[in-house]
Amino acid sequence: MDREEYDIDQLYNKSSIELGLERITALPLFNPDFGSFTSLAFHYSGLGLNSKYHFFRPSFDYRKYTFITDWLVIAFRIKMSTIFSLDDDNFVPFEERLYSGGSSSNRGWARADLGPKNSESKPSGGKSLFEGNFEIRYPIYSIVSGVAFVDFGNVWKSQLTFKVNEFNMQPDWV
User: Fold this and answer.
1) Residues 171, 157 contacting (CB under 8 angstroms)
2) 156-to-14, 63, 142, 150, 160 alpha-carbon distances in Å
3) pTM attached to this predicted model
4) 16/11 Cα distance (integer angstroms)
5) What pLDDT, on the 0 to 100 scale, is given for residue 161?
6) Predicted confidence (pLDDT) per residue in 31-40, tens digit
7) Residue 36 near residue 62, CB atoms below 8 Å
8) Cα–Cα distance between 125 and 36 in angstroms, integer?
């Protein structure tokens, strides 16, 4: 039987641990206009308890915020991740795969819509992810602000795949 045909009880027999480090100098906290954010995380799945899925996923996220003038802010972000399957069949559960697209990643695409698709054109996730965002933030009136941005990146089926010539790009403004 193919692992993708397992019943639901077998799909969720997993155990994992994650270790991460963060350095945050960005302020103010919820809408930063200066400073940076750096995150490095290591996720290992298959730690005991008869887990059927064994993989390792390192992730890196960096964000930088800079005042250009008293009212204009430039923000930049890159995020990279890859998954190394430690099983002979190279299988990674769908919910553990990498996805991109949506309001908190690449805004030019629907949620999880950037990257590999299955035969029904639905997102199937991948094993390598690169996301980049560049934006200019500007005030409009009182607490209302606008942003012009370019989002770029992709998700690939195989591990350690980051092909610049396959980046998708979406400029926009709100």
Assistant:
1) no
2) 24, 22, 42, 20, 9
3) 0.85
4) 14
5) 87
6) 899 999 999 9
7) yes
8) 29
Q: Residue 58, preceding bond cis, omega within 30 degrees? A: no
Q: How far apart are the first and last CA of the chain?
A: 49
- What pLDDT, on a 0 to 100 scale, did the predictor assign at position 163? 87
Q: How far is CA 60 from CA 51, 57, 107, 121, 132, in A?
A: 26, 10, 19, 28, 12
- Do residues 133 and 161 make contact, with C-beta atoms less than 8 angstroms apart? no
Do residues 85 and 98 lie in contact, with contact meaning Cβ atoms separated by under 8 Å? no
**Distance (Å, whole) CA 18 – CA 58:** 9
Rounded CA-CA distance 137/127 in Å is 32
User: Residue 11 belongs to what H/E stretch?
Assistant: helix 8-11
Measured between alpha carbons, how far is 66 from 73 in angstroms, rounded to an integer?
6
The whole-angstrom separation of Cα 75 and Cα 172 is: 15
Residue linked to tokens 């350690």 = 160
Q: Which residues of the chain have pLDDT under 70?
A: 1-12, 49, 172-174
Distance CA 90, CA 85 (A): 5
Which secondary structure element, helix H or strand E, spans residue 154, and what is its range? strand 144-156
Given a contact cutoff of 8 angstroms between Cβ atoms, the answer to whether 124 and 97 are in contact is: yes
Name the 3-class secondary structure at 8. Answer: helix
